[in-house]
Structures are given as structure tokens and as C-alpha cells.
């Protein structure tokens, strides 16, 4: 039929509008969502005093291969989303967006993420040793992390 709209099983009840886009899925808003999340991580790293650790770090989100570089400057921790890659001497963290979200909201800590293979660190051993401590102190500034019992598997 010319000019008619086919019935879509996932459209809204009155079927006039296109289906809603899942906010957590891939697509044009995925980059902006990931970039905003990385800025939240940068804010929590500033609260955790990344500057005192004296290390710059880069995070690559997989499978997106989106690099974000966190560098300490006079005005705090700067987050450069969609960077070309790490700078020489950076500690590199390889993880996924879901893991970063769980770190930021406090539902997962860095030690658990590393123990379960959800977070990997690369770089010099001395530099790597400081970053998990910073991440352990990194929480969303407006909330405290919930307590987790030993042996609890993260739901990521």
C-alpha cells in the first residue's frame, strides 16, 4: 500500500512513531554516552587524587576501540575522549564501557574487575602499581560505593 506504515512489533502502542532506540545499544549516541561516562571517570579520578600518583593514563574501551587519555594539569584531571591513543609513558587500561560504568557508580571495584579479567593494566610495573590504588579511591563524588561480600561475582 502506498503511503501506509507497516506494523512494527516494537513500536509504541499507537504505532505512529518509529521504534524507540535502546539507550545502551550501539548507534550514533553511543560515542556521546561513552564520552560522558569517561568524563565522569575523570571527575572521580580527580576526587581520588590521580595527581598525587603522578601518572597519566589512557583507557581504551573495547570493542569500540575508543581511547580516552587522562592527564593531570594545573586545573585537575583532563579527559580527552577519542584520543589517538596513549602517550609515551602512560599506563594503559583495557576494559569495556560496562566495567567503567560499574567502577564509576561503585557497584564494582578495580581489584574485583582485575581479578575477573574485566580490566587489564599495561605499562611499567612501578607505574601500574599506583593506578589500582587511585581507582580504588575513585567513586562518584555524590555517592558511596555499596559494600560487596567476598567471592561475589560481578554482574557485568
From TrEMBL:
Residues 1-25 are annotated as: Disordered. Residues 13-23 have a biased composition (Basic and acidic residues). This is SCP2 domain-containing protein.
Amino acid at each position: 500500500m502506498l503511503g501506509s506504515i507497516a506494523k512494527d512489533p516494537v513500536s509504541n502502542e499507537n504505532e505512529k512513531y518509529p521504534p524507540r532506540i535502546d539507550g545502551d545499544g550501539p548507534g550514533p549516541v553511543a560515542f556521546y554516552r561513552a564520552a560522558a561516562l569517561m568524563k565522569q571517570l575523570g571527575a572521580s579520578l580527580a576526587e581520588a587524587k590521580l595527581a598525587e600518583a603522578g601518572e597519566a593514563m589512557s583507557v581504551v574501551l573495547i570493542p569500540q576501540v575508543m581511547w580516552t587519555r587522562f592527564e593531570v594539569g594545573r586545573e585537575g584531571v583532563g579527559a580527552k575522549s577519542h584520543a589517538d591513543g596513549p602517550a609515551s609513558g602512560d599506563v594503559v587500561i583495557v576494559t569495556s564501557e560496562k566495567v567503567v560504568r560499574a567502577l564509576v557508580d561503585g557497584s564494582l571495584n578495580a581489584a574485583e574487575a582485575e581479578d575477573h579479567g574485566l580490566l587489564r593494566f599495561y605499562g611499567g610495573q612501578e607505574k601500574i602499581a599506583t593506578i589500582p590504588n587511585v581507582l580504588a579511591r575513585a567513586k562518584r563524588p555524590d555517592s558511596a560505593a555499596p559494600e560487596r561480600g567476598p567471592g561475589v561475582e560481578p554482574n557485568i
